[in-house]
């Protein structure tokens, strides 16, 4: 996922998007726009990383493919959402994205819960 850093001249908004999970932080017009990264975020060469993904990297070595494989395995076993969060360190958005990808590929029933 490509990281973005944008400032709109027309609406005076400020947005940062995590390169790993896609979570987005936006400050709308009328709010104090920070001079620096959102609290807990890091920037490296224009790529932003949220605190959750930094924690995951520290815990599991930061390999998104390995994380996705582990999430996929838990989903195939029918493990519940909160158990997958605890087991993998992934956030709910990442787990739901993997569930959608597995359902589209036919590896998981579209109605499977996580």
Please give a structural write-up.
With 114 residues, the chain is α+β, with helices and mostly antiparallel strands. It has 2 domains: 4-58, no CATH class; 63-104. 39% of the residues lie in helices and 16% in strands. It has helices at 51-60, 64-76, 81-88, 92-104; strands at 4-7, 14-17, 24-27, 42-44, 47-49.
Put simply, the count of helices is: 4
Terminus-to-terminus distance: 23 Å
> Can you summarize the main beta sheet?
3 strands, antiparallel
Low-confidence stretches: 1-11
Whole-number average pLDDT?
79
Structural class: alpha+beta
**Rg, nearest Å:** 16 Å
> Total domains, how many?
2
Primary descriptors:
4 helices, 2 domains, three-stranded antiparallel beta sheet, 5 strands, alpha+beta, single chain, 114 residues, disordered N terminus, two-stranded antiparallel sheet, elongated
Topology:
Layout: E1 4-7, E2 14-17, E3 24-27, E4 42-44, E5 47-49, H1 51-60, H2 64-76, H3 81-88, H4 92-104
Antiparallel strand pairs: 1-2, 2-3, 4-5
Helix pairs in contact: 2-4
Describe this structure in a few short sentences.
With 114 residues, the protein is of the alpha+beta class. The protein is 39% helix and 16% strand.
